[in-house]
Design a protein that fits this description.
single chain; four-stranded antiparallel β-sheet
Amino acid sequence: MPTTTRRFARIVQAAVTVALSTAAFAVPATAAPTSPAPPADHHGKAVFVQNDRVEGNQVIAYSREADGSLHKRAVYGTGGKGGVLGGSVVDHLASQGSLTYDSQHKLLYAVNAGSNTVTVFSVEGDRLQRRQVIESGGVFPVSVTAHGDRVFVLNAREGGSIQGFRLKEGKLHRVEAWHRALRLNTGATPEFTHTPGQVAFTPEGSQLVVTTKLGGNSIEIFHLNREGVLSHKPVVDSKPGAQPFGLTFDAQDRLVVADGVEDALLTFRIHKDGRTTLVDAAPTGQQATCWVSRTGNHFFASNAGSSTVTRFLQNREARLERLGNTPTGTGTVDSSITPDGRFLYVQTGGAGAVDAFRIHADGSLTKISTTKVPDGVGGEGIVAL
């Protein structure tokens, strides 16, 4: 096993004892509602959390109060099963973007890794209605992204692949010609560090970005032409030992990637031909930095091995200044920020919970609450509205 792989696995394994002890106290699963959840007047203010439950994946809906606190409204079955990658403890999907909101169409997409499917929900406030369950076009889907009427799913196993769909009248239709094999080294041990991490459209929708973690040590960029046709091969930017994982984009559409081996946020300029140029590398000083979210010029990196969030401010030269670290529950994983930039919600995969924080103008965080998630240990996927 390569040194970087052993190092990363040891870091995450440090959370095992706490994660297992916490799991014993996990909240029992709640069945999906057989009738619509009672109406609530929250004007679309909600947080949705996926638990990746192996017996049956679920999305838990929480209403979001004015002070940022959460109140559980309902638990919705996705109609599919969750899955667990080999070696994972706090991050069973080892990905970012497994639960994605399409604001244009008011749809929520959830991956069902254990059944190789994707679920489409319609969203009304803090209520969901399941519209469709469709095959992902590969094995073990872990991330999904949407732009206009195009949706792409990232499948993690058997070398990894992406599959494209057209959205018509609120339902996905698979486009066979939009399937691309990634041919990554996903069979190496531990599995969860070698599967791909995320798929995402660039903000203008002309390129598709895939992070491959240790399976490819690369960022891979596919081009889409005006008709939406996907390039046959990606432009690959690789670096031995690198583990590009979660990603986001800054206000100037530059790519910002969390690297789980370098424990840093890396900023890249993406050129029209798909090549990337490194602009900045900002270390967190923490362990297992794998997820990242952004509001304005502030970035928040989740550190699974340290159970912290690192705060950054980006200056005009696109350099990231580290502002400090904020502790969370055990196993800090995926996160989401409300559209108004006021609140940050962080999943803690070891604790099986969501930590809520108020975001201040200077980028500092104030803890609001911790909310237990039913069967939430190891779960990933969160959307704040």
